[in-house]
Write a structure and sequence with these properties.
heterodimer; A: 130 residues; alpha+beta; 1 helix; B: 489 residues; mainly beta; 13-stranded antiparallel β-sheet; seven-stranded antiparallel β-sheet; 6 helices; 26 strands; 10% helix; elongated
Chain lengths: 130, 489
């Protein structure tokens, strides 16, 4: 009886160890990488755009006299302008931006006020304070 | 009602009068950064809830033994006759030798000149009573029309408790420009000269002599071409080389000082034709009514399968549609055989550019409705081909709307999986498109070369919902495979 129990215990251990080993050695199969467009599967929600839409929320400054300047949103080197319009400094508003999807930060210029805004979300903030 | 109106009018006029003649700082906005942005300067000063009046006062750090370490400096102002007033009290009993020193600083060209003392007030060392302090503006500078700053400096023995200040008031009009490094407004008036008086200064105005135009807004923003690529076997899937028609596009949206669109100048460049069909090209401005267009100049549409209205938009469409050309082969004739600029064997044909200007306002300044760039931007640009000159057989970018002229009979046929009720258009069962829009001018595949062979990172971009390899189209790393792309010899 004891001999049988011992045999069963050893056999069970071997089976378990064996199974574990198999699990370690056999990663789940992955789908072969597509080599043709026709093999690709896109999500229904994928928008296929190489640009992205953002909203720049401008927080107005209560000024003692009305100040209007051109507010420019551009690439860091200023060569690509994503938005420009005359803006009243006291106005709080949201401005639409369309930038290349690869863009990670934009430069906002208002007169001599210059700020770099990282594109952490689709809604970014700008104010005139230091 | 009349009494309320008079009362409100009186209050309003009082506010205007106060702001015009009196400049005050009391910390009640509890936003020192806002006051700093309005050109007040602080050194060793912070806003505190230990109020003398109201809820907030200005507190100094410990005094340093010097008179110039702790101060508040006003913006540039024009001083009037009257008194500079403030309230102050000590914060610790027994501290001696505390004083408040007030001076004015004249403007020398664009910078501060030497300061000139107006007066000095010695604070009592006993008791915490609030001191009301008042100094007259010197007669020689009051109302002289020049710009000055007022310096209020706090001195005292080193390491002793500081002072509280409140209700600092100057008989002055504000003369600083927070947008121009707080320089005097007179400097800004020169720097921001505006010849056409449209409120956009010359330095920012692309049309400084034209009050109806102010800005050039380029798309793509670099000013170079973007790329449109089409497959033309829709609703059947094609060979996915995306070169049945390859077009460059760019446009300049000209806006006025109200950010309203005056006109849009489009340039299209026919680069390659990898099709046997004679495809036409057009675009719709989604959500922009055709009646808002005053006129169209340019384009090169000579077909008879579409008719234009008198304003240059395609007839019988509620939304503004513009026919650009009726047959790509007429624009870019084949040098022999089928296709242009897609085969390594064929000779290269220089791409042809077509310009088209859409005007929202006529030469006399008349318009139906001007829209802003919030309403009309790159999202509204809806380009499409008309397959083999069949007006109803349109191929658009994925999920872009067909026009009113599109025949809905093709939707759901063959490989097309459009579902108008869900707003899904021009996608296959695997959600693959028949057209691509890339924000850069990029090479395209040679004829019958699969697009994925030309751009190996494209697949990861597609299958990760655009999260990975966002730069798949840029020439870096192994993004481009030149073996499969059309190379101009």
């Amino acid at each position: 009886m004891n001999k049988n129990i011992l045999f069963l215990a050893i056999a069970s251990t071997l089976i378990l160890v064996s199974c574990k080993k198999n699990l370690q050695e056999s990663p789940p199969p992955t789908a072969p990488k597509a080599t043709k467009v026709s093999q690709l599967k896109a999500s229904e929600s994928f928008n296929w755009k190489t640009s992205k839409n953002l909203s720049l929320n401008v927080s107005g400054l209560n000024t003692l006299t009305p100040i209007s300047r051109t507010l420019v949103v551009s690439s860091m080197d200023g060569k690509e302008v994503y938005y420009q319009s005359i803006q009243l400094m006291s106005l709080t508003t949201a401005l639409p931006l369309i930038v290349p999807a690869t863009t990670t930060e934009v430069k906002v210029t208002f007169g001599k006020i210059i700020k770099v805004i990282p594109l952490n979300s689709a809604s970014i903030q700008f104010d005139y304070k230091n | 009602m009349k009494k309320i109106l008079i009362l409100l009018t009186g209050l309003f006029l009082n506010q205007i009068s106060l702001s015009a003649q009196q400049l005050t700082i009391n910390g009640e906005n509890y936003d020192q950064k806002e006051d700093a942005a309005n050109c007040w300067q602080f050194s060793g000063i912070s806003y505190t809830e230990k109020a003398i009046t109201g809820k907030i006062s200005l507190a100094t750090d410990l005094t340093t033994g010097a008179w110039k370490d702790l101060f508040i400096k006003s913006p540039w102002v024009k001083l009037k006759s009257g008194n500079i007033t403030l309230k102050s009290r000590i914060t610790a009993e027994g501290d001696k030798n505390k004083f408040i020193f007030v001076a004015y600083i004249p403007l020398l060209k664009e910078i501060e000149g030497d300061l000139v003392e107006i007066n000095k007030f010695d604070m009592p060392s006993a008791g915490k009573e609030v001191q009301s302090i008042s100094f007259a503006v010197p007669e020689k500078i009051a109302n002289d029309g020049n710009a000055y700053k007022i310096l209020i400096s706090i001195g005292g023995d080193k390491g002793e408790a500081g002072l509280l200040l409140d209700d600092i008031s100057l008989p002055a009009t504000y003369f600083s420009d927070p947008s121009n490094d707080c320089k005097p407004t007179s400097v800004s008036e020169t720097a921001f000269k505006d010849d056409d008086e449209d409120k956009v200064p010359n330095i920012d105005d692309a049309y400084p002599k034209d009050k109806n135009r102010a800005y050039d807004n380029l798309y793509p923003n670099s000013g170079t071409f973007g790329t449109l690529m089409f497959e033309d076997l829709w609703p059947a899937s094609g060979d996915y080389d995306f070169n049945d028609l390859v077009l460059g596009y760019k446009y300049n949206t000209v806006t006025n000082s109200n950010n309203e669109i005056v006109e849009i100048k489009y340039t299209f460049k026919v680069r390659a034709i990898g099709a046997s069909y004679k495809n036409g090209f057009a675009f719709q401005l989604d959500n922009i009514l055709a009646e808002n267009i005053m006129s169209v100049v340019g384009g090169d549409f000579k077909g008879d399968y579409a008719k234009n209205s008198s304003n240059g938009t395609e007839a019988n469409n509620k939304m503004a549609n513009f026919m650009v050309f009726e047959d790509a082969y007429r624009i870019l004739p084949s040098p022999g055989g089928s296709g242009v600029n897609v085969s390594s064997a064929g000779s290269y044909v220089t791409p042809k550019e077509i310009e088209m200007t859409i005007k929202f306002i006529d030469d006399e300044g008349k318009y139906v409705k001007l829209v802003t760039m919030k309403e009309l931007n790159a999202n509204n640009f809806n380009p499409y081909i008309m397959i083999n000159q069949d007006r109803g057989k349109e191929v658009h970018l994925p999920d872009y709307l067909p026009t009113e002229q599109a025949s809905f009979k093709y939707f759901g046929q063959s490989q097309d999986n459009s579902n108008p009720e869900k707003g899904i258009y021009y996608k296959s069962k695997n959600n693959l498109p028949w057209a691509l829009n890339i924000i850069e001018e990029i090479p395209y595949s040679r004829d019958t070369e699969d697009f994925l062979s030309s751009y190996p990172s494209f697949g990861d971009w597609v299958e990760t919902n655009g999260e990975k390899t966002k730069d798949w189209y840029l020439n870096k790393g192994e993004n481009w495979n030149l073996k499969h792309q059309y190379i101009i010899k």
